[in-house]
Amino acid sequence: MNIIVCVKQVPGTTKVAVDENTGVLLRSGVEAKLNPYDLYALETAVQIKQTYGATITVITMGPPQAAEAVREAFALGADNGIMLTDMAFAGADTLATAYALAGGIGTRCKYDLIVCGKQTTDGDTAQVGPSLAEFLDIPHMSNVISIDKAGSENIHVSADIGEYVGAYEIKLPCAITVDKGIYVPRLPSYKRMLESVKQEITVLGLEDLADTNPKMYGLSGSPTQVEKIYQPEAEAGQVIIDGSPNDIASRLCHELRELKYL
Amino acid sequence: MAGLRINHDLAHKLSEAELDAVQKLCAFDAVEVDTEDGLSVNSSCKMCKLCIENGPEGLFEYVESPETTGINMDSKGIAVYVEHTLGKAHPVTFELIGKAKELAKPLGWPVYALLIGCEQDDLAKEISANYDVHVYICNHPNLERFLPEPYTAAFVTFIDIVKPSSVLVGATVVGRSLAPRVASRLRTGLTADCTALELKENGDLVQIRPAFGGNIMARIVTPMHRPQMATVRYKVFDAPVKLQAATPQVTYFDVESVTSRIAPLGIVLKDKTLDIANAEIIVACGRAFTSHKQLSLAKQLADLLGAEVACSRPLVEAGLVEPARQIGQSGRTVKPKLIITLGVSGAVQFTAGMKNAETIIAVNSDKDAPIFSVAHYAVVGDVFEILAQLIKQISEATTNNNNNTPEKEEQFCYRGEYV
Ligand SMILES: Cc1cc2nc3c(=O)[nH]c(=O)nc-3n(C[C@H](O)[C@H](O)[C@H](O)COP(=O)(O)OP(=O)(O)OC[C@H]3O[C@@H](n4cnc5c(N)ncnc54)[C@H](O)[C@@H]3O)c2cc1C
User: Fold this and answer.
1) Which residue of A has its CA nearest to B231?
2) What is the ipTM of this complex?
3) B381 and A248: CB-CB below 8 Å?
4) Which residue in B has a C-alpha nearest to residue A24's C-alpha?
5) B78-252 has which fold?
6) Cβ of A141 and B27 within 8 Å?
7) Domain B3-63 class?
């Protein structure tokens, strides 16, 4: 079985804020890391590989430094890595991202199963997986909580649909997004980590995709646009309570009584 | 092609220090000093446009793509997707209908509800009568439960018939799986988890949500495409009052293909899992809490008030509190009557999930903590000292209270076998 895992490099514990005086976006924090939800996607692929046999290819779209995310994936068990990087991909919303990933996967890979993380920690939309499946014209199932059986024609999964858990048989090729907790992600292997440095990553740009129309990618291919970003405003008419813990507690008790909670 | 354009003549005139300052304008390291072009923008650019706003006049310019797609730009109306299980609509549906009606009113636009299912005629009539909306319904045995492919086909057929300007979908598990598939087939924009919506006179839907993983909000628009699609979480908007009077307006439509490459094998209904979204009072703990022992103090206060304990994301990440209790953008949206936050800094991703609470009491030792900007009561002090006193005083005040019923089992569990 050929499995593709889509991963993204996300900011570490970055704090972004707008500087009140200059209006400039300020960023402080640690370096980028592999999207934590993608660890579950990778682990799912590795588990399937161990049980049924598979080749795992990770794919990412991002600036050149996103290669780090692919190397991290190597250390976690991926066999091959593809990186989509091109100025034409910059400023992509989820639709343009999914379109580029679909292009990369569609033109470069034989695949049976695509595994995505549930969502990213920076965008938090959960949209890329289903969108990617649509562009590739394959079925998808979101929020998969277990892989029940994998065959050559289809895969059986259980998915958390909110009010119920559903069991499904899905024809291959297909895409799934996996929930946190499907498996416990392993720690990167030290040996693999050392080897990953030498491992080759296939780098693809716009010209390598089947659709080379730049209007389909990045900002140009993104129907949504950021009109303005701003800092949330403060609440007016606020009561400030301070003093000794004892005083604060009595005042709070008083307010809670006034509000009829006591 | 739309994008950022750099005025290279201007860039070449900049001094090294100025170039350095310009480079720092970008929070994503996308602006590079380039020996040939003076400056260049790399693929890290997120098109936040702040360099245009804050950089030297004319250095950065935003070029719009000249052509519009022109697809139904004059379309009217707002459609709401009705999510339902076992003949009951998810309550987020009504909140969205209420919001859609509010947005549509100034423009005199119609509001539609889209119901995809099997024999859901009663539900369609009920929704139409209760909320005075035009319901479009697609009934088919293969549509009994959500399956991405046939539901997408039905959804797209509906859009083709009605041509709404905007489409709102609940950001539930189903909504988050269905909406992106529909938006991609239509090649239109979809904004996830909006916390506020506005409608401009020209019909542009302004979709507001936290952005760039920071303490900032973004106004997002889909200027060149219709329909404009957005998902919104449960409890972000208010449920409208039922009207009860209107005559139901229901239109049936068929979908060409209901085939699915996914075969449903069965479902297991979940037991009523803990849902902090339903709690009237919430005590929310933040990173100030580092142990179960400290959390048990919050639990004591919660028990005294008849409240549920909830938390910010770091406590879930630390494994101290189960994920179902997380408030915020990647947790639950709550709208309780009262929320007491304890040692929560108030990042937008947290406040996005609770700022609509009726009363917000925030306790934080840092008087400049952002949580105070949404709080009605700003309590400045050490959370544990205050908790100890508060528990003592409330216990004394309510001496013979018979609360403290044993905690119900809150593990995620199944009811019955596959049916
Ligand atoms: C895409 C994305 C989605 C996210 N989704 C969520 C989400 O759903 N929910 C969420 O909560 N976060 C979310 N976050 C994380 C969010 O940005 C913040 O990092 C998080 O909310 C911070 O949690 P906190 O306030 O508990 O911790 P901190 O920011 O560390 O704040 C702790 C606060 O406690 C105060 N404090 C410490 N000790 C005491 C004491 N003894 N007495 C009184 N006060 C004390 C400090 O002054 C500080 O203000 C998300 C982030 C991203 C990027």
Assistant:
1) A125
2) 0.90
3) yes
4) B25
5) Rossmann fold (3.40.50)
6) no
7) alpha beta
Quick check: do B78-252 and B276-413 share a fold? Answer: yes
Alpha carbon B175 to its chain's center:
11
Most A-contacting residue of B22, B145, B176 (CB-CB within 10 A), to test interface: B176
Q: Residue ranges per domain, chain B?
A: 3-63, 78-252, 276-413
Residue type, B78: I
Which is nearest to A2 in space by CA: A100, A94, A82, A96? A82
pLDDT digit string (tens) for B21-47?
A: 888 888 777 888 877 778 888 877 877
Q: Closest ligand 1 atom to the C-alpha of A11?
A: 53
Q: CB neighbours (10 Å) of residue A14?
A: 17
Structure tokens at B114: 């889209």
CATH fit for domain A2-216, picks 3.90.1010.10, 3.30.300.30, 3.40.630.30, 3.40.50.620: 3.40.50.620
Q: B94: helix, coil or strand? A: helix
CATH classification (class only), B276-413: alpha beta
What one-letter code names the amino acid at B402? N
- Sequence-ordered strand ranges (E) for B240-285: 249-252, 262-269, 281-285
pTM of the model: 0.80
Q: Do A14 and B213 touch (CB under 8 A)?
A: yes
pLDDT tens digits, B65-108: 655 454 567 789 999 999 998 889 999 999 999 999 999 999 99
Is A59:A7 a contact under the CB 8 Å cutoff?
yes
